Amino acid sequence: MVAAMVGLLGCELAGELLRQAFHLPVPGAVVGMFLLAGTLVAVNRKRPPEAMAVPPALRRAADALIGHMGLLFVPAGVGVIAEADLLRQQWLPILAAVLGSTVLGLAVTGLVMSRVTRLVEKRRSAEAPRAVPHASLAGLCRKQARS
Question: For the residues of the chain, what is the DSSP string, one character each?
Answer without folding.
Answer: -HHHHHHHHHHHHHHHHHHHHHT-SS-HHHHHHHHHHHHHHHHTTTS-GGG----HHHHHHHHHHHHTHHHHTHHHHHHHHHTHHHHHHSHHHHHHHHHHHHHHHHHHHHHHHHHHHHHHHHHHHHHSPPPPP---HHHHHHHHHH-
